[in-house]
Amino acid sequence: MLKYFYLLLTFSTLSVLASTQEKSCDVELFQKVYRSYKNQVLGAKDLIRESNCAEEINLKISHVLSQAEGSVSVDFINTEMQKEFPQFAINIKSKKLSFLDLNDTFKDQLLQGTNLYFTQSKSMNGLTSIGLVEGEQLRISCDTCNSYGDKNIKLDIANSLTGTQRTLWMNSRIMAKIKVIKAKRSISFQQKALQAEDFYFDEILTMYPENMLTTLENIHFYKATKTLVQNSAVVHQDLQSLMLVNYGTPVTLSLSNQNISLQKSVMPVRSARFGETVELKGPNNKPIIGKVIDFNKVVIQL
What we know:
302 residues, alpha+beta, Type Iii Antifreeze Protein Isoform Hplc 12, 5-stranded mixed beta barrel, 43% strand, elongated
């Protein structure tokens, strides 16, 4: 009976020691993580290269780092993990993590100093992000990335420590960042003329910068061809110049160069809008071609 008691006591003691003994596991994190787009929430597979830790530990690490930006030290991660798992010794095999934006990296390496930007980048290898380990460097190449549109981009990742190399492919859309005109309020196409105070400047990304209205100069000589929605960018197709010259109504013709400035009254042979050229007839019916610049005003620049 006494022997049985000692055995039971020994087993209980060993059980207590085992339960109080600290458990351990190892996690290797990527040293650099490139997001496919800004504010992308990262998961465990985006952050962890290898791990023999329990799934709940891996998920906690991803929760701590899912929205991290810039650089994060391992000390910070250890502190957060000890709060949640004080009974574990979690060995993180990385010095620090850096979080970068892939679109910004593309621009820095391929289009620095231009108004072109990369957007909507997606992996052609099924990856949601790109992780690099110690010794790996990223080199980007694209032969057609000097114009707008969808592009295929090659990513060569070489490891100077192991002498290995891998290649990934991304698809990205290049757009131009330009300053455009937007409507402060919704403007009806029935409004006779537009006013500069109804608009404001803003920056947008577009693949069609040539279609966008970028100046308010002479905007009062235009009307909308459709309702301009509040806060929407205005394109040239949304506007129509006003009829400033009407057939049968005399107009003032100005002739100007560096030395001469003359004005006389002439008759247009048709109605014309702002910016159009129109044929005119003077007292001797000799045809003259001028450009419409204002209500009942036409100019010839000699």
